Amino acid sequence: MNIDFRRGEWLNRPATSEVSEHNLTITTDQKTDFWRETHYGFTRDTGHFLGIATADEFTATIRIQGEFRSLYDQAGLMVRIDEKRWVKTGVEFTDGQAFLSTVVTDGKSDWSVSQPFKELEDFYIRVTLFNGAMRIQASRDGSFWPLLRLAPFPVANTYQVGPTACTPERSGLVVRFSEFAINPATSKDLHDLT
After folding, report:
1. Would you list the domain boundaries of the chain?
2. Short-list 72, 42, 54, CA closest to 127
3. What is the DSSP letter of 28?
4. pLDDT of 140
5. 3-state class of 187 per DSSP?
6. Under a CB-based contact definition with an 8 Å cutoff, are residues 77 and 165 in contact?
7. One Pfam family this chain carries (predicted)?
8. Quick one: fold of 5-184?
């Protein structure tokens, strides 16, 4: 089911955004981020997030477009229960390159990066949550979906799911989101990358 972005509820609404039924454009505010404690010793819950309430057992997909050029520029899809339990996954610029990045947070954050493809100015993220397990995949074309991460994630009655963007080191990143859908959890085998 395609999601009307206008149904979303903002956490840290950016000063500049354009929301329509099928498109969302965010311009990030100064020093925005989501992180909890690990390695850096700080907690930040200031990133931009437009959440749609959904029940357990879903597959969410979104298209992300932007020019990620500065350290920690990031955008993607977030699944959130509360400030201590959430996942953000998408692109993040680090060490001079754009990577596919996932942060899983359950009290404390972890961070993993991968690069199954390098063209990250226009791509898709897909998250499936089923039976306490989260499957995260990315795609360049919406057809072939390499696996980024399989992780446990707490079971809850409802989740907030939707686009997120942050710029911990600056402001002014423009990110465009489209083709946002939330459907029943896919029953495809883990190694079926379609």
Report:
1. 5-184
2. 54
3. P
4. 96
5. coil
6. no
7. DUF1349
8. Jelly Rolls (2.60.120)
Name the amino acid, one letter, at 161.
V
pLDDT band at 118 (very low <50, low <70, confident <90, very high): confident
One-letter amino acid of 101: S
Picking from 106, 190, 115, the residue whose alpha carbon sits closest to that of residue 152 is 106
Where on the phi/psi map is residue 132: left (φ > 0), alpha (ψ -120 to 50), or beta? left
Q: Is the pLDDT of residue 142 over 90?
A: yes
For 2-61, the pLDDT digits (tens) are 999 999 999 999 999 999 999 999 999 999 999 999 988 899 999 999 999 999 899 999
Place of tokens 């001079």: 96
d(CA 103, CA 148): 11
Round to whole Å and give the CA distance between 161 and 154. 14
Structural contact between residues 166 and 76, judged by C-beta atoms closer than 8 angstroms: no
Give the pairing of strands 74-82 and 85-94: antiparallel
Both tokens assigned to 155: 């079971």
DSSP 8-state class, residue 2: B
> What string of H, E and C letters represents the secondary structure of 69-125?
CCCCCEEEEEEEEECCEEEEEEEEEECCEEEEEEEEEECEECCEEECCCCCCCEEEE
